Amino acid sequence: MLNFRKLTWQDKDFYTRFYEESPVHYAEYSFFCLWGWSHAYPIEIAETDGDLLWLRSGGPLAGMFGPCGNWNAVKDWDKELSCFSSGDIIYDVPASVMKILSSRENLRFTEDRDQHEYVYAVKDLTALKGKAYAHKRNRVRAFLDGYEWDYYPIKPDDFAEIMEFQESWRAHRMLTMNQDEAESLADEDTAIRNALEKWEDFNFKGGMLKIDGKIVAYTIAEELDPENLDVCFEKAFSEYAGSYQAINYMFLKEQGSQYTWVNREEDMGEPGLREAKLSYNPSMMLEKYQMEIL
Fold first, then answer.
1. What is the pTM of this model?
2. Helical pair 179-197 and 159-174, crossing angle rounded to 10 deg
3. What are the extents of the domains in the chain?
4. What distances in angstroms separate CA 243 from CA 62, 238, 273, one per listed residue?
5. For position 80, what pLDDT does the model report?
6. CATH number at 5-116
């Protein structure tokens, strides 16, 4: 039986140890992703004899998920799985865990395409070479050539201005949104505030584009490991042609070139978001599965 307890800020070092030992660093499982959004999706964790952590979420996407930790080193999966009962479903199971357990007759795996994470080669998104990137190149050029702009790394002195931009951006978006979508944006605002308030406690990087001294786009990203960067938040005023493409390009060019990969997270099954993420030609997908105990 798993003994779940609430994930708190005090668990940061404890949880991060398991995360760093994970063979694949999914953005969803970073401590910031879990803690930073816990106001909307409360998280509980349960440890199994020091080997793995399993997680349980409340809120709109309630359920168990995981694991986090070095699943390749688990010696007794029978003992690990004995914590679950027939009928249990574990969400967002990493693909390599599914491969380890796929031969077991008491488990059923179902691919969860909506939760796959998109990973891109940084060198591709900073070069934008070839026919596949022609449209992105043109959009970036439209912004860089069409406006008098400046790029700045985000520093603590900029946080108040970032939130002023965020308030304006959200107010504009809410004009065409239903209540559920508006609440989701409000939850995101809180997650952004959490990131800014704990900026020095994470490996965050951020950049912003300004026109006439005003922010028109910004990005906040977290280093998952020395090779992987996760874009947590990216916003732009779309009335500036190419603003989204430009902040994507400029941030990686100015502050992300030392990384091999950039993770832009999942599309959650939203058609527009899926189209946008696919248009950047992902190098790989970090797949996730649902695991049902039979």
1. 0.95
2. 170
3. 5-116, 117-265
4. 35, 6, 16
5. 93
6. 3.40.630.30
